[in-house]
Amino acid sequence: MENPTANKPQDTEKMVVRGLEGVVAAETRISYVDGAQGQLYYQGYNIHQLAERVSYDEVVHLLWNGDLPTRKQLNELRAQLAAEMKLPEPVYKWIKSVPRSTPPITVLRTATSMLGIFDPEADEMTPEANLRKALRLVAKVPCIVATLHSFRHGREPGKPDPAKGLAHNFIHIFHGGDLDREMETAVDLLFVLHADHGMNASTFTARVISSTLADMYGAVSGAIASLKGPLHGGANQKVMEMIEDIEHPGYVDLYIEGLMNDKQRIMGFGHRVYRTEDPRGVHLKRWSKKLCARDEFCQLYEISKLIEKKVKEAKGINPNVDFYSATVQHMLGFTKIYFPSVFACGRVSGWTAHILEQLADNRLIRPTSKYLGEYGRTFLPLGKREIPKAKPAKKKTH
Amino acid sequence: MENPTANKPQDTEKMVVRGLEGVVAAETRISYVDGAQGQLYYQGYNIHQLAERVSYDEVVHLLWNGDLPTRKQLNELRAQLAAEMKLPEPVYKWIKSVPRSTPPITVLRTATSMLGIFDPEADEMTPEANLRKALRLVAKVPCIVATLHSFRHGREPGKPDPAKGLAHNFIHIFHGGDLDREMETAVDLLFVLHADHGMNASTFTARVISSTLADMYGAVSGAIASLKGPLHGGANQKVMEMIEDIEHPGYVDLYIEGLMNDKQRIMGFGHRVYRTEDPRGVHLKRWSKKLCARDEFCQLYEISKLIEKKVKEAKGINPNVDFYSATVQHMLGFTKIYFPSVFACGRVSGWTAHILEQLADNRLIRPTSKYLGEYGRTFLPLGKREIPKAKPAKKKTH
Questions:
Q1: What is the tens place of the pLDDT at every residue in A378-387?
Q2: Using an 8 Å Cβ cutoff, are B378 and A68 in contact?
Q3: Is the pLDDT of residue A14 over 70?
């Protein structure tokens, strides 16, 4: 232990990859984001083939098993999901007790972690037990969000119908009633389009946590924590705040110019992977138009379209999934503080599929870091230390 | 949208880095793991210079601010930490309500997420607010663990002393009384040695979550979720299970040979980065010996030493931090189900330091994945699908 720094370590030749951009962190069969051509595939199916043609439950089956379900399989899955929507009594009571001002995504993050306490299989790591937990999470995560909304509107949450799909049952509990056929289709579409998207930050979080062989409730709770960030699933809420702030189509140009002059980020635009339009955005835009058209006083689609035009002209970037998802969610009766948690209700199918895939061929995800600090500073005991004089500003390497 | 797969994407030339081994995910000044020479530095100080010479609170100050505190700074920090140990009443009550069978690390993960509900600054992202939240987390995380233990032993948790260090106050609440000077030194040392360790899986989790600009309670809760895994912070508990299972020094050889014959992992050995001995292990081994020597009937150190010898001979690998940490924790009166959560009590200082560093120069951490699946499968409507025949086994690429 004498003179431990005789040989100074060399940590200078390493190259840092900021944000791990372009680094391939895992192999997957679940989804593929073709950024160059603006295409998205779920287990080999182009998203344009699935959108509006399949229910969310079919996508859940597809992501987990690699194939779309037969009618019999779908019916079984729906009955299982409806049965698993039931929340443990202490979680249910806890949701009721949460202060009203709490963001729903924070409630969801905490309640999902709490679910692990009441699942006797939480730490059982067999493939069969993991698939059962995936089913529970895909059913219970939307139910937590819907239950919270129900309580906050003074209602006891309704019961799911085992013959109906998860998106329907979610809405039924959330709103305390059903929507018309067109709106129900839109909810299913919303969940389908948010179900998976390659190695995004929350999915990556779920895989990193799972790679330590930690339990699935922790991995999904961590993914929800990650999704909350405004640079990820928190963006749709910020988009809606912007649209509401603009108020009228006539103010769009001035508002966006103001943001750009202040060098502020315009939420809902640009993407790490897509170099062209986001294929999910294409569908959401059409539905934003369709749903807004149902209300003759609604100008939200009009405002959105003008924002898109302005940003495209000025910065050459395209709207991403969050941009038109905001107005679609709004027209479906979700208030904007719920947007990130509704995103989570769909994405949990992708997270669980990735966790199952990670665990099937696991290796601990543990990168390294490049050290920029000193080595072997001289230790002074407590009585001899002085507040150091202001150091010259550290040289930034970026 | 017609024929979306006309141009098949090319995703074949990408190289996956399994487990991100050797990939540099971030630059840091907080700590450096010199794997080749078996050295660890905190902000430039070799760990051998700090161990047994500084209290944990001094390391907290060091990790956050880059310098060891003066006596005045240390006293201020201790008073602040003691004041911040107080838990919000609903969290306190919730901890009391948790079923006794719940692993403490699961309680800690959930309660840490819950703390975010009761901090009005949770979503305030200024550097000053983030530093205040770091302080709260470093104080409250150990208090959650100690409070849980206190409740489970039928005691109301005690009060922290603002003149004493965090490790002392933790023990005081955990055990409902004080330890002697030697054992208190060991607790401080335990926290100091677990405080930070480069880009390990839980620290990396915290940085990934924070990089979306999500709140710090979510990032630390996600880190705890990750720490729970047996390939990370859950390992110390597994080590203790093994030692207890062996029972007597005379059974070590047979037991370890049995594990090796069954191709089972021997917990507490080997490390992704260290190619030599783990410098933390050196200190923990000495303390394991010292604390076991206080009890003439204790054979835990003896058993541990024999395991180390056997594994080194057979596999040429060294014990890591978890190996001797197990017996040290045991001799300090922690039962093994608490080990991962005690690890978290020290590591939270490193997590918060890394989060502050990440946020000071943020870029979204979003790697990519290599897609192994198909493209443009033909969609069949629900009524026309059949259960596919068993596919030939997928060719593994590793």
A1: 999 999 998 8
A2: no
A3: yes
Answer left, alpha or beta for residue A173, where phi above 0 means left and psi between -120 and 50 means alpha: alpha
Say whether B24 sits in a helix, a strand or coil: strand
Contact indicator for A42, A195 with CB cutoff of 8 Å? yes
- pLDDT digit string (tens) for B152-210? 999 999 999 999 999 999 999 999 998 899 999 999 999 999 999 999 999 999 999 99
Catalytic site residue from B271, B283, B330, B354? B271
Answer yes or no: do B365 and A116 touch at CB < 8 A.
Answer: no
Q: Which of A206, A203, A145 is nearest to A329 (CA)?
A: A145
Contact assignment for A370 to B201 by CB distance below 8 Å:
no
The reported pLDDT for the residue numbered A280 is: 95
Q: In sequence order, what are the residues at sequence separation of 6 or more whose Cβ sits closer than 8 angstroms to the Cβ of residue B43?
A: A373, A374, A377, B29, B30, B31, B62, B63, B66, B67
pLDDT over 90 at B7, yes or no? no
DSSP state of B265: -
What is the value of ipTM here, to two decimals? 0.93
CA distances (Å), B137 to each of A224, A315, B300, B351, B363, in order?
A: 19, 40, 34, 10, 23
d(CA B219, CA B207): 7
* Virtual torsion, Cα A97, A102, A104, A108, nearest 10 deg: -60
CA dist., res. B307 & res. A127, Å (int): 32
**CB contact residues (below 8 A), chain B span 325-354, against chain A:** none
How far apart, in whole angstroms, are the C-alpha atoms of residue B98 and residue B150? 13
- By Cβ distance, the residue of B46, B228, B370 closest to A218 is B228
CA distances A42 to A73, A193, B376, Å, are: 19, 10, 10
Lowest mean pLDDT among B4-8, B46-50, B135-139: B4-8
Q: Are A248 and A299 in contact (CB under 8 A)?
A: yes
> For B40, phi and psi rounded to 5 degrees?
-130, 130
Nearest CB to A23; choose among B17, B213, B375: B17
pLDDT value at B4 more than 60: no
Which helix or strand (DSSP H or E) is residue A34 part of?
A: strand A31-34
Residue appearing with tokens 């309680």: B107
A153 has pLDDT over 80:
yes
A115, A136 Cβ separation under 8 angstroms: yes
How do B39-42 and B31-34 pair as beta strands? antiparallel
Is A113's CB within 8 Å of B225's CB?
yes
